[in-house]
Amino acid sequence: MIGALGLDQFDKLPLWGQVLVAARLVRRRSLALPADAEIRGTLIHNIVNHACDAIEQCCVTGEGTKHVAKELDRAIKLREQRIVDAPTLGEAVYYAIDACRAAEAAYDFPVDATVTGSATNSIAALNRDRNLSTIQLMTLIASDLDLVKFACDEAKIGKYDGLTRHVLERLPPVHPLSLGEPVRSAEDDAR
Predict the structure, then answer these.
(1) Does residue 123 sit within a domain?
(2) Domain for residue 83, yes or no?
């Protein structure tokens, strides 16, 4: 599964970089919830985005999960809910949060593989979403992996270091995953 998604080099990233890649993918899926669905206007969308903001904050500082525990705990509860328009989103955010907490714990315990496992579980959960294509996820993951790795190398960030604002500032903004067929233009129809 990991190799199929292009994650065979995932463990080469700093731990907080792995967490960041997973959180960015979760945020993309949350932003892609259909605009006409009830869920878009509910707390679920906001809960996921607040959790992703909290995870990014932890990634920058390399710690602080206790300071954002309320946001993270609220999002973890989504795993138990059935989200019609995004059935795997709750599981994906759960594993992204687990990876975040494990990255912080890695300062005290040898849990590097737990961070990698949870981050890849988050991505794998999204891969099971029937609304997404594996090639779409592979493209986004490869892009984020390359960008995060380059920014971490440039800033000389080690395996256990927080990413600093430098890394986040080097990344493009997260846009929603496009889930439908591309809109055809009149020019396409004329061909």
Answers:
(1) yes
(2) yes
CB 90, CB 67: distance < 8 Å: no
Residue 174 is classified by DSSP as: P
Q: Identify whether the C-beta of residue 176 lies closer than 8 Å to the C-beta of residue 31.
A: yes
Let me know if residue 114 belongs to a domain.
yes
Q: How far apart are CA 155 and CA 39, in angstroms?
A: 39
Q: Is residue 1 in some structural domain? A: no
pTM of the entire predicted model: 0.85
Look at residue 6 in the predicted model and tell me its pLDDT: 63
Range of the domain at 90: 14-169
Q: pLDDT per residue over 6-59, tens digit each?
A: 667 788 899 999 999 999 999 999 888 766 555 544 667 788 999 999 999 999
Residue where the block lists tokens 């080097």? 170
Length of the chain: 191
Nearest to 92 by CA among 144, 107, 83: 83
